[in-house]
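Section: Multi-chain targets

For targets with more than one molecule, the full set of components is provided together so that the structure can be written out for the assembly as a whole rather than chain by chain. Components appear in the order listed by the source. The example entry contains two components.
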Amino acid sequence: MMDVAVNKEMKGRNKIHPQKFALYAALASIMMMFAAFTSALVVRRAAGNWLEFRLPDIFFYSTAVILLSSVTMQASYYYFKKGNAALYRTLLVITTVLGISFIYLQYQGWTAMYDIGLPLSGGPVSGSFIYLISGAHAAHVLGGIAVLVVALLHAYILPYKATPRRKLRFEMSLIYWHFVDFLWVYLLTFFVLQS
Amino acid sequence: MESTDKTIIAPAYEEDVLIEELGYDDHFHDHHHGDKYQSNFVTTYIFSQDHKMIAKQFLITGMFWALIGGLMSLVFRLQLGFPEESMAWLKPVLGKWISISEAGVGTLAPEFYYALVTMHGTIIVFFVLTAGLSGTFSNLLIPLQVGARDMASPFLNMLSYWFFFLAGVIMFLSLFLSTGPFSGGWTAYPPLSALPQASSGSGAGMTLWTISLVFFVVSVLLGGVNYITTVLNLRTKGMTMWRLPLTIWAFFVTAILGLLSFPVLFSGFLLLIFDRELGTSFYLNEIFVGGQALEYAGGSPVLYQHLFWFLGHPEVYIIILPAMGIVSEVLSVHARKPIFGYKAMVYSILAIGFLSFIVWAHHMFMSGVNPFISNFFVIFTLIIAVPSAVKVFNWISTLYGGNIRFNAASLFGIGFVSMFISGGLTGIFLGNSAIDIVMHDTYFVVAHFHIVMGVAAMFGMFAGIYHWYPKMFGRFMNDTLGRIHFWGTIIGAYAIFWPMHYLGMAGVPRRYYSFDSFETFRHFGTMNQFITIAAIIVFALQVLFVINFFYSIWYGKKQKTRNPWGATTLEWTTPIRPGHGNWEGKIPTVQRWAYDYGKDGKEFIPQILPPQEGESEEVH
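Its structure, encoded as tokens over all components, is:
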């Protein structure tokens, strides 16, 4: 009975861990930054003198890669909770490799843009926007890779144990990784719809 | 009128007994290891993670910047008031920015005049009224008033201060560049901000300005994430949202505004940095500098204005909302009455917060924005008058029939209401695009925003400092000096800014270095002298305040009782000098809303006191 009473008291308070909530607030803030970038593109485009071009295909391959990395990350979390340490570790490694491949593919995309005559500066401003926005996104993915490296260190150095503290850390890494994935899908959809 | 020394007739209660009986035990005190916040000198005074110490750091850094920003305004006011007088005596301080003619007459360099105006704006808006006001009081009051040991993340909170400090150091360094600090106005419109060769301050000065403000944005975001999370997640038992003091509501909405608008400014800056450093043309179109055509093409400077003002307009509410929250609390405590229309106050804060995001283009009526789109922004701008008027009505109703204690804190609270009305009314003029087309960029605008945003927010800050000084330092500031400070400042501030309305209506443009070549404005010379003299007197009074502040830290009247103002809120239930963690044993729980003043014949009932037998219903 005592337990029930305590739970009832605690209900409505700390439904979500404060750190996780703080992460969501920070993500809202990052989202606003990209909303500003894309709105700037819309406003600038409406002003005319705007060159339309087809986005290099490589950006679609990178999209597939980062989508896949989200799936492997989620699977890793699943096995972390299930207690399958081997799969949890392996999938985390795969996620990190996919994340790094995404950055590499984005870089290939930028060189492809340069090759078709769309340099960062001195060319049409519609190209500059792609560099700016995808570059800012890549910076956030790099942050995500740093998070993954820390998660890897935890996975391989610490003995496997699904404590609440480690579960929270993993969940926060997971949320952030899904976020940069979702963000890229949004940006790509936006680019495609705009051209 | 009641004097402050009158003994308070309070219900008999003992904070410690109540907290021990009803408090919530979070096992703060471990008998083997002491409390969880152990500290040494460095972690107490420098890299402190205690929200109360961080609040003091924000406050004192903010005061430093207020003095610098104020001094700058005096120098350019001297130029405006006494353009013929020699400024040679400033040579030892300003060095090469004062040129001395053969006759020994010193003149202020025009480019440095613009740098002073720019730095004055940047410093006061960002460093004083954003970090100094919201940084100080959100940090001090959020954990204390919601009943938390500290912020959700004390570490990020510490980082928030140190990013602000770093931003300040960089901005300070830019003052000593040989080419001078940035001089293109605090809004940093391109092309002056985007082309390093555009003016002397556009080179290194602008680079440092941008770096400084990027650090500042980081500071605001770290702080904001913490404030929001703490308010939503760390409220003590019984502290529902409808029991929060209005201060917390105001800080909460302020933090949301900051979290959603500062990233947009950051985006705008990133585009600017790309234009400056990487040669892109986001903001720059075909431009000739010194007869040379530059390689930019296809950019739009208006794009920067959109991004800037999408932050810029919420920013003015980021400045004024904390002051509104502080004033609501201070007026209610010192009028010994519950705040009038508590829920209306909360809804109007929310309404102002929402509307602030959809009015930014009223800063851009003259930038070639389609007049039909302007109409949309005019309507929403004018609608802001409604929640603002609700708030003013409620403050006056709170005072009406109150048993008001006239001390420095409540006087500044009342002064805030006066300033907010005066400045708010001129906002209705300027919010109409048809009138703004005539008034824009004149001293009318300067008068409007200085009164409603600058002076009003400062008054809110002063009210808060005088009121919560005992909480910060365990002593009181000298109230007589405080009242001199108040009367001098309110009369002086009106003396400075009231005449500016007339200047503006006569068409005198702002930001001009000199009006020598305008026969029309010649007869305003004496008015400008009057304004300058008033500004010097007001500044001297602020120095008096600073002396009072620092003297009282060590020699002020000691706080003897826990709850010297007879307030209901939780911050006054801690020990007189609370340690890190705020309450020594259990965390107090909350039994009632924050404004039980004069209820059932009792002067006040603290939030920790449970409902008494025969007590009337909680109505608000």
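Chain B touches chain A at residues 152-153, 156, 221, 224-226, 228-230, 232-235, 237, 259-264, 266-268, 270-271, 274, 278-282, 295, 298-300, 302-303, 306-307, 310 (CB under 8 Å).
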